């Protein structure tokens, strides 16, 4: 595996989004000593996405290796797995088809991954950019990959970062799959709003002994089309996103609280349920104090919708228990051999060029 960065863009019907995304990738100011390439995966698009990809990249750089792959099996997880198999370099930068990377993104990411060998996944700072001015309630409640992911740059103690703009260590990912890791989430699939694959990837690498990091210097714009600012979209988003909790909740309990028995799992699960229940009743009481149709009432209603969807997911506690047992078995039976065979981390490497 060669040292460098592979930028991966996975897209489904992204013809309207990709020109700006590819333009920002082409404008990367990568130091000469860093090798890099670009891979775009067309995930079973039904529009002219592939044609747009070829035409747009032809307008820009020709000195960077570029590949267009096709994944007929719908699902962001499957698209990313294909890209990982074809990637040449040691670090993989997942750039969503609506992400506009800052010019120094690749350089800073490479520096950090080289300097800290314990990093499994590295996240950045996304700033929302809107196609049309958002309503007050939409601007006040951004639900998408954006904003700070920790109080300060460094290790993220909640053990997860959003997938947009994240960088993974390919060797760590390969280790995980060699041990028999099987993702339970397909993440976004076609027009469905299911998600969580990025968090599952983070939790899996934490189980394998790697750290999750965030650095505020890794800046990118996250474009928000008009359709994502509609009330119906939010309603659908909450309901479909909640489907991932039956998988992510067991991961969260194992990685963040080291639960290793079913009784402890249920104790922790009950704690999470009661916390969300208190939040739900608090939001109901808040609603009584707001004027009907006011922005405050709309924001509170959206929070209620999200909390209600989350609470409903606890009905699937038996499935959560099954997933907990599966994850725990993988952690206890498969991963110890991987950790033992891995060379111990060396002290941080001195980087020749510090990037600001």
Give a written overview of the molecule.
The chain is an alpha/beta fold. It folds into two domains: 2-244, Spore Coat Polysaccharide Biosynthesis Protein SpsA, Chain A, CATH 3.90.550; 249-341, no CATH class. The chain has helices spanning 18-26, 49-58, 76-86, 105-115, 136-140, 170-178, 197-207, 231-241, 245-257, 262-287, 295-313, 317-333, 335-341; strands at residues 2-11, 36-42, 65-70, 89-94, 99-101, 119-130, 154-155, 166-169, 211-224. Strands 1, 2, 3, 4, 5, 6, 7, 8 and 9 form a nine-stranded mixed beta sheet that branches. Strand 1, helix 1 (18-26) and strand 2 (36-42) form a beta-alpha-beta unit. Helix 1 packs parallel to helix 2 (49-58) and helix 8 (231-241) runs parallel beside helix 11. It is globular, with a radius of gyration of 21 Å. The protein starts with a strand and ends in a 15-residue tail after the last helix. Residues 346-356 have low confidence and may be disordered.
């Amino acid at each position: 595996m060669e040292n460098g960065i592979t930028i991966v863009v996975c897209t489904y019907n992204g013809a309207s989004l990709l020109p700006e995304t590819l333009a920002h990738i082409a404008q990367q100011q990568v130091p000469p000593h860093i090798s890099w390439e670009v891979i775009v995966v067309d995930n079973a698009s039904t529009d002219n996405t592939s044609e747009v990809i070829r035409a747009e990249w032809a307008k820009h750089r020709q000195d960077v290796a570029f590949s267009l792959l096709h994944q007929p099996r719908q699902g962001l997880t499957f698209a990313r797995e294909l890209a990982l198999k074809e990637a040449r370099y040691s670090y993989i930068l997942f750039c969503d088809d609506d992400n506009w990377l800052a010019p120094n993104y690749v350089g800073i990411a490479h520096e950090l991954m080289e300097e800290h060998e314990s990093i499994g996944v590295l996240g950045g700072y996304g700033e929302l950019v809107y196609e049309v001015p958002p309503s007050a309630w939409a601007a006040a409640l951004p639900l998408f990959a954006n904003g700070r992911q920790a109080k300060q740059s460094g290790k993220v103690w909640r053990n997860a970062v959003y997938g947009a703009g994240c960088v993974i260590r390919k060797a760590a990912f390969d280790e995980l799959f060699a041990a028999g890791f099987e993702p339970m989430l397909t993440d976004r699939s076609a027009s469905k709003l299911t998600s969580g694959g990025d968090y599952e990837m983070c939790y899996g690498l934490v189980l394998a002994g790697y750290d999750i990091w965030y650095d505020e210097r890794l800046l990118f714009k996250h474009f928000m089309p008009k359709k994502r600012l509609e009330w119906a979209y939010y309603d659908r988003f909450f309901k479909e996103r909640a489907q991932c909790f039956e998988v992510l909740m067991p991961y969260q309990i194992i990685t963040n609280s080291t639960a290793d028995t079913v009784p402890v799992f249920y104790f922790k699960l009950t704690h999470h349920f009661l916390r969300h229940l208190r939040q739900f009743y608090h939001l109901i009481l808040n609603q009584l104090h707001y004027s009907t149709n006011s922005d405050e009432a709309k924001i509170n209603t959206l929070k209620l919708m999200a909390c209600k969807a989350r609470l409903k997911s606890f009905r699937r506690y038996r499935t959560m228990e099954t997933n907990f047992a599966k994850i725990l078995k993988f952690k206890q039976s498969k991963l110890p051999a991987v950790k033992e065979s891995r060379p111990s981390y060396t002290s941080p490497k001195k980087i020749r060029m510090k990037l600001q």
